Amino acid sequence: MSKNIIVAGLGHGGIAVAAILSKNGYNVTVYEKNSEGTLGYDWTDMFDPKALEFAEIPMPPADKFKYKENMTFCGPCSKKVLTQYIPKHKTEIIMERKEIYNHFIDNAVKCGVNIVYDCEVLGPVLIGDRVVGIKTSKGEFLGDLVIDSCGMNSPVRRNLPKQFGIQREIKKEQKISIYRAFYNKCSDDAIDGKFKIILYACGKPGVSWVASHDDYTDVLIGRFEEFGMDEVERATDFLRRTNSRLGTEKIRGGQFVDIPVRHTLSVMVANGYAAIGDSAFMTVPLIGSGIANALRASRILADTIIADKSEFYSAETLWRYQVEYYYRIGSGLSPLECVKSALLKLRTQDVDYCFESEIITQDDMTIASNFTNIKDLFEIRKMDIIQKIKGIKNNKRLVIVAFGAVAKMSKVLVVSAQIPKKWDKTKVLKWAKQYDKMFE
Ligand SMILES: Cc1cc2nc3c(=O)[nH]c(=O)nc-3n(C[C@H](O)[C@H](O)[C@H](O)COP(=O)(O)OP(=O)(O)OC[C@H]3O[C@@H](n4cnc5c(N)ncnc54)[C@H](O)[C@@H]3O)c2cc1C
Question: Is the shortest distance between the CB of 121 and ligand 1 below 6 Å?
Fold first, then answer.
């Protein structure tokens, strides 16, 4: 008899794994709180299309996406900018979020996935130490496995028993608050750098961008603290000083959303339970992109489920998913949380100094765009990075922060590599505690 798989929340990884499992004969139902046709934000997103192939999702039609172009990085006040040259057609695609959802949902429905809309998931249903279903606004649903794809604040993960060892809450400093909106174009002035990323704009720790398009300007303000519309006004005025095309009329978006910017959940499976996407904090810790990682995880999770011939989906068999994800992706991303923490220790003048003193060059930015895994980049360029830090001895504070970050990154890489290869609850929880402690 085919097994019943519950996917809680229509997240990107959840809908992708649902499609693969359904194609392989599983009975899969996704429960989503929003109504049909209303999913996604009113803006565009970037992701690596190679992840689609990994998740067995076809490439979207050519008229639905564009390729990412060169990006220009700027400091808070420094006049010096660094351009990241993107090889044509080799990196990320830009697509409307609603179209991304439509594409993934069409694929899943064609594969036989059932989707129940307008159904809010309230928490897990447990028997002993096993998740056996979900509580929802439409009643309880039981299944052989619950895949948690409800995002960062998943009510399933947050209501798991403490003894599962799964972190239930995300700390304040582990998320970035984002405001994003498209504004009218108010002039035809020529623009230097169509897509500008500004570190510490307005002197506040965070990342902002201004992307000038033919008929609108896309603005994102990201801060490591909560902020409101007063701050948005101040920040957009600041951005207007160097982007004369940025108008004052908001034409799309205009929402505040939080994104996790931390290491992947140190334990993301339990008996009858596996977390994916933002529920497991799979975003890139520095920038918050999570679509491609959720897609890659979907394939690893589907392979693990299909390989479980006992069809019991215990923590022991699902652990393979976590180990594989960490090996391929997670362990390569977690050092970026150290970079984020280091950035938060800097003052605006330190950030400007990095641009002025050429610690980071255009070549570095361009090379970085070709790596999806910081582990590889760090291992190949470690000596180069140390040389660069030595070269900035004029700024002692920066040297201390930078050496601290490099030492921490090395340690994080060592501990991630020590992840227990086989499930042994005591060993796993001990490792998870040690791993999480490094980011405190
Ligand atoms: C402003 C912004 C810009 C971003 N830009 C990019 C980008 O350019 N590229 C990129 O790769 N990533 C980007 N991200 C991150 C990306 O959105 C996520 O990492 C990615 O979507 C994976 O998250 P998810 O699908 O698992 O979770 P989510 O996107 O949070 O989806 C969770 C789903 O579960 C549903 N849900 C939640 N709670 C319940 C409940 N209680 N009951 C039922 N359903 C529920 C939600 O409605 C939603 O459909 C951005 C995020 C934000 C906020």
Answer: yes
